[in-house]
Amino acid sequence: MEIISIDTVTRSIAETAAYYETVLGLPVSKEIGAVEVTVGRTVLRFREDADAAGDQHYAFLIDDARFDAARQFLTAGPGLLSEGDRAEFEAQAAWNARSLYFPGPDRSVLEVIARRDLPQDLGAGRGAGAKASSPHVPGTQPVPFGAGDLLSVSEVGIAVPDVVGTADRLTEAGIGRYPSGSATFSPAGHIDGMLILVSVGRTWFPTSDRAVGEPPVTVVAQSGPASLGVVPGRYELAPGRVLVVRP
């Protein structure tokens, strides 16, 4: 389920635009009351709502071969979020992925994730066609990490009143769930893109003070090579929170 676009809100357009443009170096398009950020194949659109409650979560896909470069870039820039002395997180075996978390604008919790099982070439880093597990070539200089290494939005955090029931409905539509779910947390989707369904009242990992919010959000996606069985349609996840899957 490749994520094409996300339309949501932020408490500060100015802060959000400045962060994505100057801290991450991403292309930003500004208009009155809104800003669009291009993250590889995904467009993130924020509208201003000064009264929006809670905090948001997005994960950006990177090539696994660029993971060390990403860590250096983020450490020198926004800094990394940690759990105790851990700042690098290896996911459960079913995910075959690893992540770094870092603070974003408007108290968001951002993540870069390298998914080793992606079937296609990712085209990031040292040259087009680099694979998700391609090793560094001895004798060459690593290219500094940059905006071009952020390939798409891989995860969107969404609060729902019934995590299990919502995950069940999406499973019936071909949007599978990962085995690490619970009554308050359930990833729904595939390695090419997923929704992180959570209950209000949780905090975003790995923080203890950034609370799950209930902002309006529309996620537009389409089936990809790793998600061919997804049924197109409009799925109401919660009031103001919608998933649209294109044919």
Task: Give a description of the structure.
The protein is mainly beta and 247 residues long. The chain is 13% helix and 35% strand. Strands 2-3-4-1-12-14-13 form a 7-stranded mixed β-sheet, with helices on one face. A 7-stranded mixed β-sheet has the order 6-7-8-5-9-11-10, covered by helices on one side. The protein is globular, with a radius of gyration of 17 Å. Mean pLDDT is 90; it is low at 123-135.
Detail the topology: elements first, then pairings.
Layout: E1 2-10, H1 13-23, E2 28-31, E3 34-39, E4 42-48, E5 57-62, H2 67-76, E6 88-90, E7 97-103, E8 109-115, E9 152-159, H3 163-172, E10 185-190, E11 193-198, E12 217-222, E13 233-238, E14 241-246
Parallel strand pairs: 1-4, 5-8, 9-11, 12-14
Antiparallel strand pairs: 1-12, 2-3, 3-4, 5-9, 6-7, 7-8, 10-11, 13-14
The radius of gyration is 17 Å
The sequence of SSEs as H and E is EHEEEEHEEEEHEEEEE
What level of helicity do the residues show? Answer: 10-25%
> What is the general shape?
globular
**How many beta-strand elements?**
14
Q: Into which percentage range does the β-strand content fall?
A: 35-45%
Q: Compute the number of helices.
A: 3
The main β sheet shows up as: 7 strands, mixed
**Protein structure class:** mainly beta
The N- to C-terminal Cα distance equals 11 Å
Mean pLDDT: 90
Sheet with most strands: strand arrangement: 2-3-4-1-12-14-13
Low-confidence stretches are: 123-135
Oligomeric form: single chain
